[in-house]
Each structure stands twice: as C-alpha cells, then as structure tokens.
Amino acid sequence: MVFSQQNFDKLSEYIYRKSGISLEHTAHYDKLYKQLKKRANEENYSSFRSYFYALRFGDYKDQEFESLINAVTVNETYFFRENHQFEILIDDVLPTIHANKKANEPIRILSAPCSSGEEPYSIALHLLEDDDLINKRDFELVGIDIDSQIIDKANRGIYSERSVHVLSSEIKDRYFTKKNGSYELDPDIRGAISFKKANVFDKKEMHDLGKFDVIFSRNMLIYFDDVSRKEVAMNFYNMLNPKGFILLGHAEYMNRIVTVFKPVEFKKHIIYQK
Ligand SMILES: C[S@@+](CC[C@H](N)C(=O)[O-])C[C@H]1O[C@@H](n2cnc3c(N)ncnc32)[C@H](O)[C@@H]1O
Fold it and tell me: Quick one: pLDDT at residue 255?
C-alpha cells in the first residue's frame, strides 16, 4: 500500500480532530504506516483510500479508530513518577478538601490519563501508606485513558521491573507478588480503582464521570496543540467541584492555557485550584 505525505496529512488531521493528538511526520510516519499495512493485510484494504473510507464510514469504524489510536499513543508511565505531587496530595491537598467537605461525602480523585494504571495506583498506595485520612473518609479513585488496550493492562495490574523501579523493596513486598519476573499488584488495590476507556475531548463521556475534588492530568497535554489544550482544560474545569485541585506534569503550565484556575504553591511546586 502506498502511504504518501498527503495521506499522512489526511490521517493525522483526522486523528487530531477526534483525539486532540498532534502527530509529526518525522516521529509518527512509520508508526502509522505500520498500522495501515497491518490492517490492510487483515482486512484486504487495497489502498489508503479504502482504509480511510472504512475508518470514517465503515460498519466497524469505532473499532478501526480504536486500534489506530492504540497504535499511536505514548503510554510511558511508572509508579511514584514525580513523587512530590503525591506528597502534596497527601500533606496539603487532601487535608484542605477534607476540612471543607461534608463528613458523609467521598473525596473523588480522577487520573486523566491513567495509561496502564501506575498513577492512580500510586495515589492508592500513598493513601494507604501515609494518610490517616483513609480511616475518616471514603475515597473514589477513577482512571481514564483513550487507549483501550492500556486500560485492559491497568485492570490486570501486572507490571514490569521498569514500572516499579522507584518503589522501595518494602512497598514492593507489601503490595506486589513477584511472578515470573513480573510484579502483580494486590487484588484489593486493583479493585479500589475504577478504570474506563474515555476521551478527554468527549464532553458527554467526561460529564458522565461526575464531579471530582482532584484531577491528575500529567504528561498528556504536551501532546496537544494550544486549541486542544484549552478545550481539555475547560472540560476539567467543569468536572471539578468548587475549590477542587488539578495537578499537571512538570512540563505543563495551566496559566499558559487558560486563566480560570488559581495557581497555588505547595512545597515549592505549583498546582492549580478552581
Ligand atoms: C505518557 S502517558 C501519561 C500517563 C500518566 N499520567 C503519567 O504521567 O505517568 C499519556 C497517555 O495519554 C493518553 N491520551 C492521549 N490522548 C488522550 C485523550 N484524548 N483522551 C484520553 N487519554 C489520552 C494516552 O493513551 C497515554 O496513555
């Protein structure tokens, strides 16, 4: 199958419109071409044109798009990544929310995107390890990602050495079982997170998740352009309870995207409040 520059532009424009992800020719041409050749073999697409038609109008267009997205997402993540943010959550953010919330209401935390689950599971481990709040208050932890395969992986909770490389041996011993070189997370912790495939641009999917007190959105906005970042930032704004907090990755700055959040400094790091 021929995959010209023009074909690449059409396909990446379509992906951008549906997911916000901006692709570059140098970094993504090979990935897209590989996916196209794979699908052409499986479904006998004879040309880019027939593939692109099936992607937009075919009976299985949603599944086709899903497998295309799964092929281009960057899922890099690991337990306790940028650990100071989990410390800020435990020491500063949660006590503030706890003090201002009705006693019988749960604190809801969203990880968007959660990739293979290390981020929301890190939140759960910090709650268990460091916080006496867990005995006073119910928590609901939700993880979402656009990539369906990575959500399956998050639900399985089986990790490589690389995923757990910053965890102490005490934490690994306490919460994981080592099997054939992999680390299997305790089933009770796996059951504590509700994982869902969802697209942060999809207003209905976001609305259906309900309101949250804290949103972690780390290392996804960097893959979007300014227009998309703004749209997602406003979706998050609408999903937060009043005075709720949002934490971004170290290369992401909310005030360059929208001005509706108030920057707040904890432990010399900036996070944002509604
Ligand atoms: C690099 S991972 C970040 C994971 C984790 N937050 C962390 O910082 O370790 C980026 C994730 O964003 C997800 N993603 C990209 N576009 C998305 C979208 N429109 N909606 C939801 N998730 C998306 C990708 O599938 C990928 O798993």
Answer: 87
Distance 131 CA to ligand 1 centre (A): 27
Ligand 1, residue 21: give the atom nearest the CA: 16
Cα–Cα distance for residue pair 128/10, rounded to 1 Å: 48
DSSP labels, 86-125: HHHIIIIIHHHHHHHS-TTSPEEEEESS-TTTHHHHHHHH
pTM above 0.90, yes or no: yes
Q: What is the Å distance from ligand 1's center to 19 Cα?
A: 11
Q: Which residues line ligand 1 (CB under 6 A)?
A: 19-21, 73-77, 81, 113, 115, 119, 145-147, 150, 199-201, 218-220, 249
Which regions of the chain are under pLDDT 70? 131
Q: How far is CA 55 from CA 35, 40, 73, 172, 255, in A?
A: 12, 12, 17, 43, 36
Q: Which long-range contacts (CB under 8 A, 24 or more apart) does 238-242 make?
A: 238/206, 238/207, 239/110, 239/206, 239/207, 239/209, 239/210, 239/211, 239/212, 239/215, 240/211, 240/212, 240/213, 240/215, 240/274, 241/211, 241/212, 241/213, 241/274, 242/274
- CA of 113 relative to ligand 1 center, distance in Å: 4
SS3 call for 259: coil
pLDDT of residue 256: 87
Ligand 1: which atom is nearest the Cα of residue 201? 19
Task: Find the farthest-apart pair of alpha carbons in the chain and give their distance in angstroms, rounded.
Answer: 62
**Category of 259 on φ-ψ map: left (φ > 0), alpha (ψ -120 to 50) or beta:** alpha
